[in-house]
Fold each of these.
Amino acid sequence: MPPAFGGGARRLEGESAATSARLRAAAEVAALRAAGVTPLLALVSVGDDPASAIYLRKKGQACAEVGIESRRVALPAGTPTAEVVARVRALGADPAVHGILVQLPLAPPADPQAVLEAVPPAKDVDGFHPENAGRLAAGLPGFVPCTPRGILELLRHHEVPLAGRHAVVLGRSNVVGRPLANLLSSKGVDMTVTVGHSASGERLRELAREADLLVAAIGRAEMVDASWVRPGAVVVDVGIHRVPDPTRRSGHRLTGDVEAASVGAVAGALTPVPGGVGPMTVAMVVANTVLAARRQTGAS
């Protein structure tokens, strides 16, 4: 069992769950290659965002580990939207490319929504295309965004009870909050879901305290402390922030949307930052790419 936080909350480590997901993907890739299919993921970026470079390297490495080939398409800052869209559409028309991932943010003036909509839904391994978002909401097969899918897989890996429980998702972004709410309330998962956000006002903390499962995806460092958490609740921290810390040699530390020290004293379980949701997001990029290759080629 993973070690507990200082206050006793069980650590829901992401690496063990991610390793299991990668092993399953590697077996599927081996079967695809035996059938003559080499899965290929195109990684598209615009500009030189340092964080994006790290994420892209991790995704490329994760693909290589399981036998998926990756193709980097790096465009300079200042590339107009039409040119980015044209490159994405060319990748979409290439039968050798099974998945396309557009790394956000895109440097201006590229319009991220126009670029994301240029990705064919069948190759949209990030699950951001409006068609895939709609299919998730309707309970139809499609691609689930990697972070929400990774959160669900992480909870299942650690055998966290979900059906019939109450989840409160803090944040309503199209990347995490909204798709996660749809996923947790879908048939087969069967949670009752409340979405809280910046316009929820003073009641937001009260809503959070009603949760059996509290997911913090609000983008503010350590905003969720113990006063937000019902004793014994499971807490998933989606945020990651670099904050000043004069006690560290680097002068900073990584933290999430949750104040782990206080929340760990009251929660039943908590994902660490780093090492919780992050590894699962990368693992689900791999899983979705394998799924895309299988669907496009008809290989089992």
Note: DSSP finds ten helices and eleven strands in the chain.
Amino acid sequence: MISAFTSSGSSGVRVRNSKNFYSDPIYPVALLILCMTISACSTAPEKKHAAPKRSPPELAKIPDAVPKAEPKSELGNMKTYEVFGKRYFVLDSSDGFTQKGIASWYGPDFHGKKTSSGEIYDMYAMTAAHKTLPLPTYLEVKNLENGRKIIVRVNDRGPFHDNRVVDLSYTAAIKLDVIAKGTALVEIRAINPGSHRGGGAPVETRSRPQEKRTPLDFYIQVGAFSDYNNATRMKNRLLALEAPVRIEETMLNDAPAFRVKIGPLNNIDVADGIVDRLELFDIHDHRILLE
């Protein structure tokens, strides 16, 4: 899969289309050619890739990434960049960053290729990709369905699937028990290396064969409005989805607001289908809510 981007800083961002598609760094000469074919590439169906046929037994024993102070990488930290018509703004700092949403993973097809930071992707290392966090950033990732936690080092950009917040390396996905399902509901939290006191201990996946998954309800938020009438108009637009849509009153910046959200849902594939259909309503800004 070929993908393209533009940025207001240095090039060298390696990007994915959907959850597991990457291209090598794209430079200006290639960009013109790619732009002519981008519409066809960006509408291709998402690839359902399989795990490697042989999983080394020692993978579950690989320790977490150990947070340490590092300078920002020379590549991948431009202020802003664009992928498939959507602009992303890279954060100056990861301090206090938390996020909930859907995680995916990427592995064999990209092993040994360059990441957005210029480093070589190692599917057996404890790394991850994020769209806007500074490179590198250390993250604690918690699988909300089974309670497992890991620490990864973010050294890549993506995933550029509309409904994903983080892409995990193969080993990180093994340790969180994400491989078989392909996705999981997660909470991610940026770690300050100066205050972190964790140990980076290995997670023995084989020690918990009967580990129970807890189905979680979640929502797709499609808007937040200060005016209830605007929220109602949005809700009425979405009736054609034939999915539950509700308006919820909340407080934003010390003022009342009305959130329009689809759900509750408990199936990520169903949520992906709804997100795809939102494009038909010209709705491109949405996010996963877990409550």
Note: Confidence is low (pLDDT under 50) at residues 1-47, 200-210.
Amino acid sequence: MTDASIHIRGGRLIDPANGIDDELDLFIRDGLVACVGDMPEGFQADETIDASGQVVCPGLIDLGVHLREPGEEHKGTICSEAEAAARGGITTLICMPNTFPVIDTPAVWELIRRRAKACGSARVLAIGALTKNLEGGQLAEMGALKQAGCVAVSNTRRRMANTLVTRHAMEYARTFDLPVILCSEDPHLKADGCVHEGSVASRLGLPGIPSAAETVAVARDLALTEHTDSRSHFHTLSTGRAIEMIRQARHGGARLSADVAIHQLFLLDTDVDGFHADCHVEPPFRTQTDR
């Protein structure tokens, strides 16, 4: 009911764009914000929502969603996952290209876009493949992907053939002003590791992933970003050192951004103790210093 007048009262209103973080009422008319704070003159609410003890904020954006449709609909469909996201306050999903088939042609993205539009819940955007079939060798048709509506390109966590291919991919993406989403991790240093390399891994007898697996790859990708003058976004970082490297590069003028997965802000490698399978994530949980 987008044309309804809604009064949301008693909530903690957070709006970073306007510098608001306070307990304020929100008034919505015809799907738009009519007023914040005091009720506007002549406003009559069709619905009043008591948000006491709750946070009222703009819809959240998930930057790296791995949709199971197309290809693995038995695990989840676009509609079921978009609906679950909307119920959790996430109004925009950015779909990674590792669907089946891979989003390396406009046709695959058009299929996803139409299905998402028909569902009518959370908005779905797409990241196109950096290389064909995410195989790390031949570059994907980035111009066609952008024209179809893809907002960025990525090879997810799939290995690139070599650094030269990564350089050419960044240069090609720059010609279309497409951001490159990087999941920086050295596959040789990661090897068969499954948790952070440290005392917990040693005690449990599990192969570890050193912090250097991330920082070495970030250093390489930073150098390539600066060399190609491309736009790069470092996705789901886990080490404090990598964040510091990116901060310094941004200070030097590089066109960079970065994110961390929300669970990295709350959990540590010590939470893996007891072989908790729910804490087996990529990249792994790091130390208190990293958090």
Note: The chain has two domains: 6-56, 60-279.
Amino acid sequence: MRVEHLRTAIALMRYGTVNRTAAELGLAPSSVSDRVRRLESALGAALFRRDRDGMHPTPAGRAYLLAAAEGLDVLDAAAARLREPLTAVTVGAQVAICDAVLPDVLAVLERRWPGLTVTVKPDSDRSRLLDGLLRGELDAVLLLDTGPALGDLGYPVPDSDLTHADLRAVPMVAVAGPGHPLLGHPVRPADLRRDATLLGQESRCAFWLATRRWLGPGTQLTAVGGLAQVRDWVAAGRGVAVLPGFAVRDDLASGRLAALDMAPPPLQLRLVWRSSRGATEPVRTLLYALSQA
């Protein structure tokens, strides 16, 4: 049983309707219904009666949720006494992640901790971000990686005093411009190595490292600048690139780019912090926000 599912069911009992509960919690109505179903499944009992007018707590369900709400209030109060109020969080992130991920995270933080000051320090240089973390300038760093160990994507890790948590998979897409000869039929990695000009930002970027890890260390790529330049070159028919889905979503929807019929391995969205300091309050706060965004 997950606590957020229990909190959602308690909110539904209090607010009366799925739509109002969703609005109060900042969720989609379908997410409210899904969380309640998952809680009921974990408990092995129905908490709500469903009819054409909506969802209404059963007598037993209401009694359970009222008791659970009292218990959660006690736990929340005890947790609040354990720590000083958190007033500031500083997070570093790779530039590509900032636009795609952090707006939703910041919205969660603003709803949950309205007085919290969040400082975001974007940087395209992963090494600078990790060095800043080790110097204590950052509470945590958000980056793209793969594999069980930090740096398995192929970049150097500056110190062993780092730990991480993987938050979600980031799908990767091999994209080409409209009319590219590799479109319209299944493509193997060998076809890509043999028949395509592969484009990337530069040799240290996550997408470049991911492409070489997938296709082999001897794979040749052409550096063309930033992410926007890579998309422009691909759209102009100058080559193929392997990029995260969030970076090409709009171009795929508009038809400016097209996806090849192949499935590159996904990357992981990874939060990194200093293991010697443990999961500090800022780190726990970021982990919560990232899990909710």
Note: The radius of gyration is 23 Å.
